[in-house]
Design goal:
By secondary structure, this protein is mostly helical. It is built from 11 helices and no strands. Helix 2 crosses helix 3, helix 6 crosses helix 9 and helix 6 runs parallel beside helix 10.
């Protein structure tokens, strides 16, 4: 749903002259949505961050909902690309899961990570989002769970992860750990570091 919505929006405005670089203004808006969430973000906040007038934002994106849809699609594309690069270095399912956990630890410990995860933050608002946005968030969460399940199954097949573990339940627990890391990472006293990774991996033995 998120990819389809993004394509429809891009098609609607393709060919229309712009006085800005699309990716650049989406990245600026992304920072605001990550820090404040969808509902708490005002058009004034977006205007200031994107360095565009409110009228220009409405002209280019129609409304805040469609702007958020494009921002969300770009966020997923960037994050998933970075994660795929990390996972490629792993030779086993266990090693790829280890790389995934390190990826999220690194994410919460740099400046951008402290701004918050757009997926995790949007999931908190899920019940109050419009249907198409809520579906996009739900699908992103589902894909995250499917990725974890696949990595666990790969590890069970190559012998690096306990074959007796329930892959679905283990993936669900891993997802809770990852999401918790993203939320706890926003606050300095609870921000996780690398020491959490070997502890989390113990559940795979």
């Amino acid at each position: 749903m998120s990819e389809l919505l993004s394509r429809q929006i891009l098609a609607k405005y393709r060919g229309r002259p712009r006085e800005f670089q699309l990716d650049e203004v989406l990245d600026r808006a992304m920072l605001v949505f990550r820090e404040k969430g969808f509902h708490a973000t005002s058009m004034g906040d977006l205007s200031e961050a994107m360095q565009l007038t409110t009228g220009s934002i409405y002209k280019a994106f129609s409304d805040k909902r469609q702007l958020f849809a494009q921002v969300f699609a770009r966020y997923l594309s960037l994050r998933n690309g970075e994660l795929r690069t990390r996972l490629e270095s792993g030779k086993t399912g266990f090693a790829r899961l280890e790389a995934l956990l390190h990826f999220y630890v690194d994410s919460v410990r740099d400046l951008e990570g402290k701004r918050g995860c757009l997926v995790a933050g949007s999931a908190v608002e899920l019940q109050t989002l419009e249907q198409d946005l809520a579906e996009a968030v739900s699908e992103a969460m589902t894909r995250n769970l499917q990725t974890l399940t696949l990595l666990i199954q790969q590890g069970q097949q190559d012998g690096s992860i306990n074959a007796e573990l329930n892959a679905d339940a283990t993936a669900s627990l891993m997802l809770c750990i990852v999401l918790g890391m993203r939320v706890a990472g926003k606050i300095a006293p609870t921000r996780p570091d690398e020491t959490i990774v070997p502890l989390a991996l113990k559940i795979l033995s």
